[in-house]
């Protein structure tokens, strides 16, 4: 019985489509109060005065909390540092009169209903003393300092080899600020318990991260705070750190000893972490035969004045191709903005744009097919770490992707293909993402009816965690899928890492597998003690809720009864697989894209995409495909649409709504063909599965840009590629 | 959103008499509710006009159509008489918004959509249209989506409607009713240029209600085209749109209409440019001259210079496509 590898429907699908799945901002309670956040309208300065009198005069307005009247909170940085904190001093909401960025929360209005709270918020008058500010990365790039997390050390002699290379390239790219914009806005519902403890429904990718944060910031005991996140309506990284609605809601709840909900508006979804703007420089040197001799990748990213947010932007350039002379540089520019935050394939989604566009430019300069250039420079080892790969089926991705796409029919000449007035272009790119594994714990519990419940304090941010963990548990325990329940989204469950980085299946999945195996060992032990036929049986197997040996079987439910207990349970703490040491582990992809560009009007449409993925064993092809499709769509958005625009005179985001911040709509998306190539890996983890949350987006924007060049003969290096840039 | 009074009159005169400078009529609410949520519009009284008898499309004695102000955008776009006689209007409506919005939005309300200028939409920053005299950050700020024609020092906003661009080209008339009685406004006069009073989008008085849109009879149905150019394939406002309509005798132009959207504070049309097309033969050169003439006064801001090139190419494309659009059954 193998449930792993089956395209099982979402086990929580029915709850979701019938509205029974409750999200953080949807838990009702009699007497629940509603908070509305009042945000800064200036980018930098001090709050001189907050006049809430008009708001407080309205019947039904309960309180207005600001930095002067808030409950006591911690002051030292370590209290505010969470599991995904950047280096520096974390933002402390309503801490003092300092305004650090436009949109900063400065007050919370609490009222009997949401509409009243929002209206009252509009009546709160704030007087500022403003200071000069700077929000423009381009203008401030000379102020860049080295990132606290440094890229791998240079290898070889990049500069000398690059200058002498037969073909050398020096190109600059830029990528804009982008916001996560999950459909569900960030929300926290704090349910004040009769004993004064807090039950909090929060939008998060880590209930235990939020629990620790609330504990530390408010000086509470662990037992006083329990965080739930049963359902999360998309997060993409925006829920990795506790967001400010959480401490604000807790402040109100503690101050008033009442239950309080705070939900951010869509505009306020633009007032915390985001994907930072980057300026990138790629210097490639190659021999005439296409051999990559020298590679330099410099990236400058923006950060806030209070934290140095760093991500892996340039590392990928040292590992995707074989190259002996490499120099990777990563710098940060502090601006008067909020700190950036991990966002789907953080770093890789940015750095691989520069690398893979530059590789395309190199292929053109060499007069070589882009796939051929990549095969010539195929990396058999990860030279950043000087380690072999645990597995790497990127060659198969290139081959299968190219074949399905029909790449062999491509005329390399730009502007050589058309369909009426539409110029047609074909482009491709590769992608890479780490296959990490973290510590994780899980509990497996079986009752006398044979129902198995497995739990861990992870989340399901729409990725299908409930479903794939159910499958892994069913497979490992031999219990039918219908008899397995997986619990998550509760800080009181066994420890789980943040849900991010594509390591949930690898980490929590392994813990689930081990917990089920440990439970089976316990059940087998009972069988051996109870039934002579099992006593010395060597060939036993767990299947269909039964323990078998030869033609004899006993139900697991019976074994629980035989144990004399109501139920049996085990908890395991799993560690990253020892086998991983000495290897590099990564997922890879090859993306092939066809675009059409109107020859007169410059309008661009992605007609079709083939995304070939090497991610080890796929636990659920249906969920995995959804992850890749979502990544591809987002990659198209990165290429063509997404950009949070700042007015640098006001220091403020101006297109902060889903009407003006463009993401692709259905009409922008053509055919997406996802293929998972065979990749067998016994090293990465016991499941042999690498995770697919990030890899789908990596390389897509570069492939689109390369296709646009092929269509038009115009190389646009400033993202997003809007029609005015190709006119 | 501020608290407000709400009433639901059943007659036009009753509605008009309920109105004041601080009240707003509401039909579909697809724009007004957004504006209220953002504290851009703060009416003290919402007068719900959906119960008024303005839901019909009637044929006029002169051979045109009279469209009730409460006909939904969706019903209008898919109405057989509109599809048959004014396909330009159908096309323009369906190029805008989303099916859900078009189901709610009314014909009259479409004329009263407010600009999508980022600065107008953020009540915390200056904007002369929202707060006269506060300034216009768009002039020196993020102005990629702003006007290239007819703008003023005070305002560079554009009108967001697609439907209105077609109505301008079709020479619609706007029937309105106020306390002083009814009047008819030529479409070209309905919307204003910003000048030094950008807070006023149009010529309606506070107590006036749009009751109907009249479309005159014409011979343009066989050769019309609405071209919308935008940053994504749907659910985005026009960077440039072109409503083009021709009456042809063989290859000779008998009548011509040309209106632009996304480039000015109102649908942009120049009768002299249309007059110059009459009598000409259909050709790229003819259309190219028309484009140059219509855009001759265009003035770019820092980030919207591309709109001049885009509009020029869009005009040529739309007129060319209109010319070959072919006879309709």
What is the fold's blueprint, element by element?
The complex is a heterodimer of chains A (727) and B (329).
Chain A: H1 13-17, E1 33-39, E2 45-51, H2 53-56, E3 61-66, H3 77-80, E4 87-88, E5 98-99, E6 105-111, H4 114-123, E7 125-130, H5 137-140, E8 145-146, H6 158-164, E9 167-175, E10 187-192, E11 198-202, H7 207-218, E12 225-228, H8 245-256, E13 260-263, E14 278-286, E15 292-304, E16 307-308, E17 325-335, H9 348-366, H10 370-376, E18 381-382, E19 387-388, H11 394-405, E20 417-419, E21 422-434, E22 440-447, E23 452-455, H12 465-477, E24 484-487, H13 504-530, H14 532-535, E25 540-543, E26 546-549, E27 552-555, H15 556-562, E28 567-574, E29 586-598, E30 604-614, H16 621-640, E31 646-647, E32 652-653, E33 669-676, H17 700-712, H18 723-726
Parallel strand pairs in A: 1-13, 11-12, 15-17, 23-24, 30-33
Antiparallel strand pairs in A: 1-6, 2-5, 2-7, 3-6, 4-16, 8-17, 9-14, 10-11, 10-13, 14-15, 18-19, 20-21, 21-29, 22-23, 22-28, 25-26, 26-27, 29-30, 31-32
Helix pairs in contact in A: 7-8, 9-17, 12-13, 13-15, 16-17
Chain B: E1 5-7, H1 12-18, E2 23-26, H2 32-37, E3 45-48, E4 57-59, E5 65-68, H3 73-77, H4 80-85, H5 87-94, H6 99-104, H7 107-111, H8 163-169, E6 173-178, E7 181-186, H9 187-190, E8 209-215, E9 224-229, E10 240-249, E11 252-261, E12 268-269, H10 271-277, H11 284-294, H12 306-323
Parallel strand pairs in B: 1-3, 2-3
Antiparallel strand pairs in B: 4-5, 5-8, 6-7, 6-8, 9-10, 10-11, 11-12
Helix pairs in contact in B: 5-8, 10-11, 11-12
Describe this entry's structure for a reader.
The complex is a heterodimer of chains A (727) and B (329). Chain A folds into three domains: 17-132 and 183-235 and 239-270, Aldehyde Oxidoreductase, domain 3; 278-436 and 581-726, Aldehyde Oxidoreductase, domain 4 (2-Layer Sandwich); 438-575, Aldehyde oxidase/xanthine dehydrogenase, molybdopterin binding domain (Aldehyde Oxidoreductase, domain 4), CATH 3.30.365.10. In chain A, the strands form nine sheets. In chain A, strands 3-6-1-13-10-11-12 form a seven-stranded mixed β-sheet. Chain A has a five-stranded mixed β-sheet with strand order 8-17-15-14-9, sandwiched between helices. In chain A, strands 20-21-29-30-33 form a five-stranded mixed β-sheet, sandwiched between helices. The radius of gyration of chain A is 27 Å and the shape is globular. With 727 residues, chain A is of the alpha+beta class. In chain A, helix 7 packs across helix 8 and helix 12 runs parallel beside helix 13. Chain A is built from 18 helices and 33 strands. Chain A is 25% helix and 27% strand. The longest helix of chain A is centred in the C-terminal third of the chain and has 27 residues, at 504-530. In chain B, helix 10 packs antiparallel against helix 11 (284-294) and helix 11 packs across helix 12. Chain B has 329 residues and is α+β, with helices and mostly antiparallel strands. In chain B, helix 2 links the parallel strand 2 and strand 3 (45-48). In chain B, the strands form three sheets. In chain B, strands 4-5-8-6-7 form a five-stranded antiparallel β-sheet. A four-stranded antiparallel β-sheet of chain B has the order 9-10-11-12, sandwiched between helices. Chain B has a three-stranded parallel β-sheet with strand order 1-3-2, with no helix packed on it. Chain B has a domain at 224-323: Enolase-like, domain 1 (2-Layer Sandwich). The interface between A and B is medium-sized, with 33 and 33 residues.
């Amino acid at each position: 019985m193998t449930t792993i590898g089956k395209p099982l429907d979402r086990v929580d699908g029915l709850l979701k489509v019938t509205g029974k799945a409750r999200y953080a901002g949807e838990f009702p309670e009699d007497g629940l109060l509603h908070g509305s956040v009042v945000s800064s309208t200036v980018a930098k300065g001090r709050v001189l005065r907050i006049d809430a009198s008009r708001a407080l005069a309205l019947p039904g307005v309960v309180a207005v909390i600001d930095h002067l009247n808030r409950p006591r909170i911690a002051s030292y940085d370590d209290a505010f540092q969470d599991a995904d904190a950047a280096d520096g001093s974390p933002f402390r909401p309503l801490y003092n009169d300092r305004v650090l960025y436009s949109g900063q929360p400065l007050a919370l209005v609490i009222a009997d209903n949401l509409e009243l709270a929002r209206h009252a918020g509009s009546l709160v008058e704030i007087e500022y003393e403003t200071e000069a500010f700077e929000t423009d990365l381009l203008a401030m790039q000379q102020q860049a300092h080295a990132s606290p997390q440094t890229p791998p050390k240079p290898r070889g002699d990049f500069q000398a080899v690059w200058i002498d290379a037969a073909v050398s390239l020096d190109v600059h790219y830029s990528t804009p600020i982008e916001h996560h914009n999950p459909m569900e806005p960030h929300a926290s519902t704090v349910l004040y318990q009769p004993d004064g403890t807090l039950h909090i429904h929060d939008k998060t990718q880590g209930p235990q991260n939020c629990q620790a944060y609330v504990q530390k910031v408010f000086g509470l005991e662990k037992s006083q705070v329990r965080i739930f996140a049963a359902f999360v309506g998309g997060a993409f990284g925006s829920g990795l750190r506790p967001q400010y609605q959480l401490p604000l809601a807790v402040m109100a709840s503690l101050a008033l000893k009442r239950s309080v909900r705070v939900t951010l508006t869509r505009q306020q979804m633009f007032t915390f972490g985001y994907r930072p703007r980057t300026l990138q420089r790629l210097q490639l040197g190659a021999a005439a035969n296409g051999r990559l001799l020298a590679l330099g990748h410099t990236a400058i990213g923006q950060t806030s004045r209070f934290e140095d947010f760093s991500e892996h932007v340039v590392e990928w350039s040292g590992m995707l191709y074989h190259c002996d002379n490499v120099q990777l540089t990563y710098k940060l520019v502090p601006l008067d903005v909020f700190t950036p935050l991990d966002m789907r394939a953080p770093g890789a989604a940015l750095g691989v744009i520069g690398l893979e566009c530059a590789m395309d430019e190199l292929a053109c300069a060499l007069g070589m097919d882009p796939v051929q250039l990549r095969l010539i420079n195929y990396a058999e080892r990860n030279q950043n770490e000087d380690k072999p790969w645990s597995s790497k089926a990127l060659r198969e991705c290139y081959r299968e992707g190219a074949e399905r796409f029909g790449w062999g029919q491509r005329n390399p000449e730009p502007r050589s293909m058309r369909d009426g007035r539409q110029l047609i272009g074909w482009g491709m790119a590769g992608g890479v993402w780490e296959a990490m594994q973290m510590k994780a714990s899980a509990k497996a519990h079986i009752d006398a009816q044979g129902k198995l419940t497995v739990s861990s304090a992870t989340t399901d941010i729409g990725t299908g965690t409930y479903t794939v963990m159910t499958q892994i548990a069913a497979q490992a325990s031999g219990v039918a899928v219908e008899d397995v329940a997986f619990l998550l989204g509760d800080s009181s469950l066994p420890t789980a890492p943040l849900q991010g980085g594509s390591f949930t299946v690898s980490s929590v999945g392994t813990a689930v597998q081990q917990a089920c195996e440990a439970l089976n060992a316990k059940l087998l032990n009972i069988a051996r003690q109870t039934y002579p036929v099992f006593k010395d049986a060597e060939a036993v197997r767990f299947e269909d809720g039964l323990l078998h040996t030869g033609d004899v079987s006993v139900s697991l439910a019976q074994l629980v009864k035989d144990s004399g207990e109501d139920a049996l349970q085990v908890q395991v703490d799993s560690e990253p697989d020892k086998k991983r040491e000495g290897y590099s582990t990564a997922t890879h992809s090859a993306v092939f894209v066809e675009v059409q560009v109107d020859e007169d009007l410059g309008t661009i449409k992605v007609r079709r995409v083939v995304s070939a993925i090497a991610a080890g064993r796929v636990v659920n092809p249906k969920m995995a495909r959804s992850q890749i499709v979502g990544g591809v769509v987002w990659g198209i958005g990165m290429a063509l649409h997404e950009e949070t625009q700042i007015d640098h005179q006001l220091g403020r985001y101006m297109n902060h709504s889903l009407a003006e911040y463009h993401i692709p709509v259905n009409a922008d998306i053509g055919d997406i063909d996802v293929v998972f190539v065979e990749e067998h890996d016994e090293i990465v983890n016991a499941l042999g599965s690498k995770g697919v949350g990030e890899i789908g987006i990596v390389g897509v924007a570069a492939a689109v840009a390369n296709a646009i060049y092929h269509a038009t003969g115009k190389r646009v290096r400033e993202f997003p590629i809007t029609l005015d840039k190709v006119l | 959103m501020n608290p407000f009074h709400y009433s639901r009159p059943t007659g036009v005169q009753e509605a008009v008499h309920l109105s004041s400078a601080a009240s707003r009529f509401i039909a579909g609410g697809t724009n007004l509710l957004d504006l209220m949520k953002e504290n851009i519009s703060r009416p003290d009284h919402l007068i719900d006009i959906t119960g008024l008898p303005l839901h019909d499309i009637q044929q006029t004695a002169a051979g045109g159509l009279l469209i009730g102000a409460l006909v939904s955008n969706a019903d209008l776009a898919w109405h057989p008489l509109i599809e048959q006689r004014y396909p330009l209007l159908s096309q323009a409506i369906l190029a805008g918004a989303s099916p859900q919005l078009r189901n709610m939005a009314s014909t009259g309300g479409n004329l009263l959509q407010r600009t999508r200028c980022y600065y107008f939409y953020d009540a915390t920053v200056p904007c002369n249209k929202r707060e006269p005299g506060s300034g216009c950050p768009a002039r020196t700020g993020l102005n990629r989506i702003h006007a290239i024609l007819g703008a003023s020092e005070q305002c560079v906003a554009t009108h967001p409607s697609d439907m209105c661009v077609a109505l301008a080209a079709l020479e619609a008339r706007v029937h309105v009713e106020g306390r002083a009685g009814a009047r008819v406004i030529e479409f070209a006069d309905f919307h204003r240029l910003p000048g030094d009073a950008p807070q006023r989008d149009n010529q309606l008085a506070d107590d006036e209600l749009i009751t109907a849109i009249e479309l005159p009879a014409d011979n343009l149905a066989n050769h019309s085209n609405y071209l919308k150019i935008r940053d994504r394939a749907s659910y985005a406002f026009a960077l440039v749109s072109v409503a083009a309509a021709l009456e042809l005798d063989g290859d000779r132009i008998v009548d011509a209409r040309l209106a632009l959207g996304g480039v000015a504070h109102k649908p942009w049309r120049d009768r002299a440019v249309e007059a110059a097309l009459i009598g000409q033969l259909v050709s790229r050169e003819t259309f190219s001259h028309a484009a140059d003439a219509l855009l001759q006064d265009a003035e770019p801001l820092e980030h919207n210079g591309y709109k001049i090139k885009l509009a020029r190419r869009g005009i040529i494309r739309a007129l060319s496509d209109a010319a070959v659009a072919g006879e309709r059954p």
